[in-house]
Amino acid sequence: MKTKIVRDVPIGVLLIVISMFAAYAVTALANFPPTLNVIAIFALCYVTNKLVVVGMDLIQGIEIKDTNDKE
Predict the structure, then answer these.
(1) In sequence order, what are the residues at sequence separation of 6 or more whose Cβ sits closer than 8 angstroms to the Cβ of residue 27?
(2) Are 27 and 38 in contact, with CB atoms under 8 Å apart?
(3) C-alpha dihedral (19, 25, 31, 33), degrees to nearest 10
(4) Please, is 41 exposed, middle or buried when counting C-beta atoms within 10 Å of its C-beta (0-12, 13-18, 19+)?
(5) Where exactly are the structural domains of the chain?
(6) Second label for 8, Cα 20 to 30 Å away, from 17, 19, 33, 54?
């Protein structure tokens, strides 16, 4: 089974910059809470996002190359 990895660095950087604006908007809408609360909010959002992505991958099915395949 042959696979290919596609990377697009400029689009990735653009998405990171847009996410920073979104993070600033969250802190502005929350009236700039204490730093520890902001860190906790972002950490929990990150964990939640990763869990949702993994869950969606499991629902859709994940293709894994079998290293023990003798064919």
Answers:
(1) 33, 38
(2) yes
(3) 0
(4) middle
(5) 9-60
(6) 54
